[in-house]
């Protein structure tokens, strides 16, 4: 082994010589795969962008009208194969082996082969040297020149390094340039030209110092900076400032080799897409030189001025651009900044930084990408794919038995570091070794691009390209930029010549297309490229000679006119353009265009004529303003036109546009601004607002006819859109014009006067809003009187059409209420404006007056007002007492106005009144009935079954309600023609009020008095336990109705519809319900049987209508089941009765089998219930019986002492024997609870007697709701 | 604009140069300025010509022996309310025709005022002509030819009595102006190449391009 030194890392990484050096080793840095936060570098990285944004340049070329003008740039690079060298290496491939790696220096190109041979060519391709390799050392894997170009180092696949001179053919071999048994994958000379850095396929990084006297066969010193077991270096690159970029599988390490080790400057993570090898390339700008596009990579390595030092790192799809701060390399300051990070669409495998803004990338498929590191763009170049020679077998260690590191193996598939090398002289070229030979990849210069267009006769693209260069849209050298203006002018002139030369022949449309194609470009180039004079003179003169080209030219001017790009256009052009627009009917464009041309270029006569004919007000305004300095005439003209339609409520679109324009113009003029944008000049800024103000506020208007009404313009504007007009006033209120001479106040007063005279609700509403607004902004005095006038005018108008009127009045009054409100109150009373009155009275706390107002008009709102006052009026005690007293005094009136609302009021606030309502006189009862009915309803809702918690009084009060309903006294309750509706109303009250109604016979007697209240009577009888009478009454109804009821067959037991005469079915339904309610009574089965008999008899009487018969049968079955549900007492009779029924007796088992089964099962069920009950009784009593038996047979307890525990006398008198075994005379016992005085300290010999067992209490209702799960069918 | 008005760059390629001149017509209302221009430009005459609003713009080219003259004619409105517009049009004009109505003495007085104003405000090299229009109704003449001619001579004005209706002297007066206009190579005349970098530069003296 020809290496020297040990592998101990502390011997090599001397980091202690710098205070600010990293306190971790290169190995540490490499092994730290989890935490990539290098405290020296990464923490301070500033990320300017995120990954994920990929942008490509537009490259589609089209000259269609609808598409933007674009052109296609050729590829930014050109690939030039070196034919001579390529032919030689391919021709001798069999003999000399496949080419593996390439290097270039000072006009020499070295190529090494898989057989370890070296071919040294000059740039012309002449083979200068040929060195046969030793096959026992394996094929070559890499080659490099020393920086001075004197030496060559060849890395071999079996681990040796061959050092050669290129002049005297001497060579020297280092047998193991890396770890023993590992192949060399990269060699690199450092600046001293005597140190070779190597990387082996075990991921180790070695430094080998070649002895200057190496021909003396002295040992070279080899030291390991990173051993493969600790780090996974896959490639390295020499950077300026003696920095070495070490590309590992996870990160990029900036490393400096020192005499006694090395120092890490920083670490940048590249921890993504491991299958792709990381690549990096640097750019060192030359700030002193303007032309830094072709700096020499070799020179940059020697330079000491490292100002614009950038590095581009790629890994798969990711690209990062870093700026290295060389001055901070050995300080604690930031050493690098991330400038950009972005994605490219294809995974890159190699990179080369060509010029300031150009990085060439080669992807895994060999495609070349143009990368702009600043714009973060990547564009695939339309070039042939470079079939690069990958170093896969070398990295995978095919010559050394595949013993390589996992990291190296991972990137082996796409690694091609050895087949790309930069040229010595210029960064704008690099050399690649491809399967089909050696090639140069060069950056295409701007001149070449231009020449390329010229060759293709593509003047349009050339002009657009030059335009972009002039406008800095395309990167170009400063020299080219300087030339580009003249070139553009020449090119445009040529384009014009091509345009006017037209086409040789063909249809007219072809000629139009030809003109369009060129004129679009000429216009764009001239306008945006600063060739306006050329456009105005030469272009216009020549193009206007032909009517078609002239039309096309004018058509394409639109966008530039609207953009204001035509600076100082010539008069003929302007007027031709405007006339063209007018003749084509493009009046909208005409309107927009006319205001964009300087006034002195306009043919005013034509423009004004067109504008007047087509109502182009913007044009009229513009000409008047700019040419005649007249701001009022257009306003007056527009107002005159507005007067034709403003009185109408509905406007056409054009009328609306005109009106809106007037308002905008007015706003501009009053505010001293130019229309439609900009500012007026100093003189006009004062004059125009004043003139405008005088115009619109003039009493007579323009015509000044005596007979006309006053303030015609104000009236007109208020008629058209009061809201927007007053908004204009509000917007301009703070301009100087209105601040002088109290103008605003006077103006607002005048507007108010006009509004009042107009009696226009909308105007008045917005006028009130304006007053409030201006007053709040302290621009006018407190507008009490104007508000009063406006409010009174509004109050007198009826009905109101606008929903916001009331709010506007309230807003106005709230803001400024006049001291004397009488006029307003009077106006608000007729017609009645309750809300306004409420506001007025409540603000003065005149509650009684307010209520009186409502009462006078018998307005139902009175109740809510009273409620509101009581609830939210924050009354004082005195006020409250007075108000309540007053309301009590008007209670009778309140009863009358609305019973339901009154009931609510009383229920909420005056419950004490209820007790006074138990009137005896019928008239009074009639009066209070609606209120009481309402209270009853409210109490029902609130679940309060009482009126005043006095049973007697409650009965009386409910009696009034009952009587009222029964006798149909007028009330708020709904009425119906149907006499039975009363019955229904009463019934609907019963679930709640029945107990009260049934307390006495009062209600029953009243109900009986009404023949239609049968149900009510039945319920009352039932409630008063007159069941037989109730049933009889129901049965009576059945009998009574059977004659005239033809609808017996339709036995619908639940009849919801109210009919004038209830059918038998309904009464039957009632009867059945009654029976159901009384099902627990013993005698209920009798009633049921009566009903059943009634039905069956009726059924027999009904004809043979099968449908009806079927329904009767069904009803009978239901009845049967209901009867059976009460017990089996009538089962026999039921069966008899059924058998008498022909339909039953003659039916099949299928029809009535279910019923028979029900009867049987119910009997069975009853029997079973009895049986079960017996079992249950037995079971429950068994335990008790057993205990009883035990107790009976038990011995008497032992007595501890037969003497009294108290007096200790013998047991000769009556006494107690306690469980503790003690005896005590009754007379000696003082304890009420009969407890022994021994305090429970029993003799242990005495067995205490247990307390007699009492059965535990059970809640028999505990499972009341749960199902019994009884069988109802026979087993 | 100034470059164009003052006469743009001469177009190379032979003695027949194209020159562009701004010409303004001034005069009292209803003296026939628009009719005069209409007759000159379109060869038409309307008995009832509508009143001009502000100013109207027309162009007409006349050929001289050695040059083509392109007139950019501004026909101004004669009404008093448009008087303030006039400076905008005669400023930078190389020629002006002051028109009066030979049947209206007042219009002649007004013409004299216009001449004075032009002498005071317009370019010192402006070629001025005095046109006594409506010569077809000479029987109603109130302004004598001699009087006007004398005034023109005194003020170095071209003078003709014209009739837009009959076309009398219409072309002649324009031709006379064209002939009197300075046609010739300007100082520092460009020599074939156009410096597009300085499109707005002022070039003095030249009227041709």
Task: List the keywords.
heterodimer, A: 1275 residues, alpha+beta, Methylamine Dehydrogenase, Chain H, six-stranded antiparallel β-sheet, four-stranded antiparallel β-sheet, 47 helices, 28 strands, disordered N terminus, B: 209 residues, alpha/beta, Rossmann fold, 6 helices, 27% helix, disordered C terminus
What is the number of helices of chain B?
Answer: 6
* Largest interface (C-beta under 8 Å): A-B, 32 and 27 residues
> Structural class of the helix and strand makeup of chain B?
alpha/beta
Instruction: Round the Cα radius of gyration of chain A to an integer and report it.
Output: 57 Å
* Shape verdict of chain A: extended
Mean pLDDT of chain A: 80
Approximately what portion of the residues of chain B adopt beta-strand conformation? Answer: 15-25%
What is the CA-atom radius of gyration of chain B, in angstroms?
A: 17 Å
Poorly predicted runs of chain B are 1-14, 186-207
* CATH homologous superfamily assignment of chain B: P-loop containing nucleotide triphosphate hydrolases
Strand content of chain A: 5-15%
- CATH class placement of chain B: Alpha Beta
Q: What is the distance, rounded to the nearest whole angstrom, between the alpha carbons of the first and last residues of chain A?
A: 105 Å
Strand order of the largest sheet of chain B: 2-3-1-4-5-6
Q: Care to describe what's here?
A:
The complex is a heterodimer of chains A (1275) and B (209). Chain A is α+β, with helices and mostly antiparallel strands and 1275 residues long. Among the domains of chain A are: 78-288 and 297-443, Methylamine Dehydrogenase, Chain H; 447-567, no CATH class; 898-1024; 1065-1165. Helix content of chain A is 44%, strand content 14%. Chain A is built from 47 helices and 28 strands. In chain A, the strands form 7 sheets. Chain A has a 6-stranded antiparallel β-sheet, with no helix packed on it. In chain A, strand 8 and strand 9 (171-174) form a beta hairpin. The longest helix of chain A has 44 residues, at 1149-1192. The model of chain A is unreliable at 1-23, 33-64, 288-293, 1046-1061 and 1270-1275 (pLDDT under 50). Chain B is of the alpha/beta class. Chain B has one domain (15-178): Rossmann fold. Chain B contains 6 helices and 6 strands. Chain B has helices at 2-5, 33-42, 86-90, 105-121, 145-154, 170-180, and strands at residues 17-27, 55-63, 67-76, 95-101, 127-133, 158-161. Chain B has a 6-stranded mixed β-sheet, sandwiched between helices. In chain B, helix 4 (105-121) links the parallel strand 4 (95-101) and strand 5 (127-133). The longest helix of chain B has 17 residues, at 105-121. The radius of gyration of chain B is 17 Å and the shape is globular. The two termini of chain B are 14 Å apart. The A-B interface holds A 485-486, 488-489, 492-493, 530-534, 536-538, 568, 570-572, 575, 599-600, 602-606, 608-609, 623, 627-629 and B 1, 3-4, 8-9, 52-57, 59, 72, 75, 77, 81-82, 84-85, 88-89, 194, 196-197, 199-200, 209.
């Amino acid at each position: 082994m020809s290496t020297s030194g040990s592998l101990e890392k502390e011997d090599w990484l001397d980091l202690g010589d710098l205070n600010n050096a990293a306190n971790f080793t290169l190995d540490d840095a490499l092994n730290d795969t989890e935490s990539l936060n290098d405290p020296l570098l990464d923490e301070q990285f500033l990320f300017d962008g995120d990954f994920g944004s990929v942008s490509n340049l537009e490259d589609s070329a089209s000259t269609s009208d609808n598409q933007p003008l674009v052109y296609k740039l050729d590829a930014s690079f050109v690939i030039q194969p070196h034919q001579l060298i390529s032919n030689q290496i391919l021709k001798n491939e069999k003999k000399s082996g496949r080419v593996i790696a390439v290097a270039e220096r000072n006009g020499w190109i070295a190529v090494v082969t898989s057989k370890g041979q070296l071919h040294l060519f000059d740039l012309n391709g002449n083979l200068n040297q040929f060195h046969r390799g030793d096959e026992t050392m394996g094929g070559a894997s890499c080659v490099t020149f020393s920086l001075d170009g004197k030496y060559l180092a060849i890395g071999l696949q079996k681990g040796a390094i061959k050092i050669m001179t290129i002049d005297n053919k001497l060579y020297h071999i280092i047998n193991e340039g890396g770890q023993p048994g590992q192949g060399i994958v990269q060699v690199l000379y450092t600046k001293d030209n005597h140190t070779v850095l190597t990387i082996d396929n075990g991921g180790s990084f070695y430094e080998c110092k070649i002895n200057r006297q190496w021909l003396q066969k002295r040992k070279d010193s080899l030291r390991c900076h990173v051993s493969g077991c600790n780090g996974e270096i896959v490639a390295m690159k020499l950077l300026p400032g003696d920095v070495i970029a070490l590309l590992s599988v996870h990160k990029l390490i900036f490393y400096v080799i020192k005499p006694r080790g090395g120092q890490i400057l920083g670490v940048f993570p590249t921890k993504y897409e491991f299958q792709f090898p990381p690549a990096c390339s640097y750019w060192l700008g030359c700030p002193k030189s303007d032309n830094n596009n072709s700096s020499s990579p070799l020179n940059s390595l020697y330079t000491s001025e490292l100002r614009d030092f950038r590095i581009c790192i790629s890994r798969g799809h990711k690209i990062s651009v870093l700026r290295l701060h060389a001055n901070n390399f050995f300080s604690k300051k930031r050493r690098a900044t991330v400038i950009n990070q972005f994605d490219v669409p294809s995974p890159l495998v190699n990179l080369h930084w060509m010029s300031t803004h150009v990085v060439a990338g080669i992807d895994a498929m060999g495609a070349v990408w143009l990368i702009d590191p600043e714009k973060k763009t990547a564009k695939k170049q339309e070039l042939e794919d470079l079939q690069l020679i990958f170093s896969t077998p070398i990295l995978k260690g095919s010559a050394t038995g595949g013993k390589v590191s996992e990291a190296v193996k991972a990137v082996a598939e796409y690694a091609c570091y050895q087949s790309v090398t930069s040229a010595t002289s210029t960064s704008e070229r690099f050399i690649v070794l491809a399967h089909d030979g050696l090639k140069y990849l060069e950056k295409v210069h701007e001149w070449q691009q231009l020449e390329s267009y010229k060759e293709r006769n593509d003047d349009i693209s050339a002009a657009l390209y030059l335009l972009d260069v002039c406008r800095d849209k395309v990167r170009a050298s400063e020299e080219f930029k300087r030339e580009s203006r003249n070139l553009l002018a020449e090119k445009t002139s040529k384009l014009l010549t091509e345009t006017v030369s037209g086409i040789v022949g063909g249809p007219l449309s072809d000629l139009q297309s030809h003109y369009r194609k060129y004129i679009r470009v000429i216009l764009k180039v001239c306008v945006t490229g600063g060739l306006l004079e050329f456009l105005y003179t030469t272009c216009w003169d020549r193009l206007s000679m032909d009517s078609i080209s002239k039309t096309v030219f004018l058509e394409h001017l639109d966008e530039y006119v609207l953009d204001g790009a035509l600076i100082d256009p010539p008069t003929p052009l302007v007027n031709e353009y405007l006339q063209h627009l007018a003749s084509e009917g493009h009046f909208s464009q005409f309107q927009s265009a006319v205001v964009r041309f300087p006034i002195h270029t306009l043919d005013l006569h034509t423009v004004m004529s067109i504008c007047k004919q087509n109502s182009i007000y913007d044009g009229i305004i513009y000409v008047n303003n700019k040419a005649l300095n007249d701001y009022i005439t257009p306003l007056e003209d527009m107002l005159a036109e507005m007067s034709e339609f403003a009185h109408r409520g509905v406007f056409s679109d054009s009328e609306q546009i005109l009106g809106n324009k007037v308002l905008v113009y007015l706003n501009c003029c009053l505010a001293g601004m130019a229309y439609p944008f900009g500012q007026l000049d100093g003189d006009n800024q004062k004059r125009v607002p004043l003139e405008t103000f005088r115009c619109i506020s003039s009493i007579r208007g323009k015509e000044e006819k005596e007979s006309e009404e006053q303030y015609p313009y104000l009236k007109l504007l208020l008629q058209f859109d009061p809201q927007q007009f007053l908004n204009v006033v509000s917007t301009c209120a703070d301009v100087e014009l209105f601040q002088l001479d109290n103008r605003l106040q006077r103006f607002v007063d005048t507007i108010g006067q006009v509004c009042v005279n107009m009696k226009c609700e909308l105007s008045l509403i917005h006028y009130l809003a304006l007053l409030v607004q201006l007053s709040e902004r302290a621009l006018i005095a407190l507008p009490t009187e104007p508000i009063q006038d406006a409010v009174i005018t509004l109050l007198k108008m009826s009905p109101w059409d606008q929903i916001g009127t009331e709010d506007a009045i309230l807003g106005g009054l709230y803001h400024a209420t006049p001291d004397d409100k009488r006029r307003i109150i009077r106006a608000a009373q007729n017609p009645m404006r309750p809300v306004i009155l409420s506001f007025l009275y409540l603000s003065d706390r005149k509650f009684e007056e307010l209520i009186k107002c409502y009462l006078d008009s018998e307005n139902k709102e009175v109740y809510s007002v009273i409620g509101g006052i009581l609830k939210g009026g924050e009354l004082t005690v005195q006020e409250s007492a007075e108000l309540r007293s007053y309301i009590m005094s008007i209670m009778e009136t309140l009863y009358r106005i609305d019973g339901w609302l009154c009931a609510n009021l009383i229920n909420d606030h005056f419950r004490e009144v209820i007790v006074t309502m138990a009137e005896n006189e019928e008239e009074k009862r009639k009066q209070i009935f609606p209120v009481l009915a309402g209270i009853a309803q409210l109490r029902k809702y609130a679940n309060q079954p009482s009126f005043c918690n006095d049973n007697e009084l409650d009965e009386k009060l409910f009696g009034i309600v009952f009587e009222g309903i029964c006798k149909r006294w007028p009330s708020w309750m709904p009425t119906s023609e149907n006499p039975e509706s009363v019955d229904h109303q009463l019934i609907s009250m019963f679930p709640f009020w029945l107990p009260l109604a049934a307390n006495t016979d009062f209600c029953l007697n009243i109900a009986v008095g009404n023949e239609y209240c049968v149900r009510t009577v039945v319920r009352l009888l039932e409630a008063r336990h007159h069941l037989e009478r109730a049933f009889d009454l129901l049965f009576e109804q059945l009998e009574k109705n059977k004659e005239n009821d033809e609808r017996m067959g339709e036995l619908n037991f639940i009849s919801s519809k109210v009919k004038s005469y209830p059918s038998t079915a309904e009464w039957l339904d009632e009867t059945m319900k009654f029976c159901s309610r009384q099902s627990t009574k013993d005698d209920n089965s009798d009633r049921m049987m009566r009903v059943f008999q009634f039905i069956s008899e009726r059924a027999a009487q009904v004809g043979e209508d099968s449908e009806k018969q079927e329904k009767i049968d069904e009803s009978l079955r239901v009845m049967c089941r209901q009867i059976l549900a009460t017990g089996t007492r009538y089962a026999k009779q039921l069966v008899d009765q059924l058998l008498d029924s022909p339909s039953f007796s003659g039916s099949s088992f299928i029809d009535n089998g279910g019923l028979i089964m029900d009867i049987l099962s119910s009997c069975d069920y009853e029997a079973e219930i009895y049986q079960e009950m017996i079992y249950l009784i037995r079971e429950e009593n068994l335990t008790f019986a057993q205990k009883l038996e035990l107790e009976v047979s038990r011995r008497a307890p032992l007595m501890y002492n037969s003497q009294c525990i108290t007096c200790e006398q013998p047991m000769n008198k009556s006494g107690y024997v306690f469980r503790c075994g003690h005896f005590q005379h009754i007379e000696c016992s003082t304890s009420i609870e009969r407890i022994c005085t021994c305090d429970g300290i029993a003799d242990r010999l005495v067995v205490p007697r247990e307390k007699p067992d009492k059965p535990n209490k059970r809640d028999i209702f505990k499972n009341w709701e749960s199902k019994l799960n009884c069988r109802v069918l026979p087993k | 604009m100034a470059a164009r008005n003052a006469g743009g760059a001469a177009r190379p390629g032979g003695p027949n140069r194209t020159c562009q001149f701004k010409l303004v017509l001034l005069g009292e209302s209803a003296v026939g300025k628009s009719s005069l221009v209409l007759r000159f430009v379109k060869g038409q005459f309307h008995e009832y010509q509508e009143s001009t609003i502000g100013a109207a713009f027309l162009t007409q080219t006349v050929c001289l022996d050695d040059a083509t003259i392109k007139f950019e004619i501004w026909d101004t409105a004669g009404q008093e309310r448009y008087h303030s517009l006039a400076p905008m049009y005669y400023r930078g004009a190389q020629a002006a025709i002051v028109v009066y109505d030979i049947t209206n003495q007042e219009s002649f007085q007004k013409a004299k005022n216009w001449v004075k104003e032009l002498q005071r405000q317009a370019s010192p090299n402006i070629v001025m002509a005095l046109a006594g229009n409506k010569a077809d109704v000479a029987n109603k003449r109130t302004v004598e030819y001699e009087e006007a001619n004398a005034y023109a001579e005194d003020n170095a004005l071209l003078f003709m009595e014209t009739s837009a209706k009959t076309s009398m002297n219409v072309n002649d007066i324009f031709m006379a102006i064209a002939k009197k206009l300075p046609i010739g190579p300007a100082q520092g005349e460009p020599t074939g190449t156009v410096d597009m970098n300085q499109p707005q530069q002022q070039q003095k003296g030249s009227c041709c391009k």
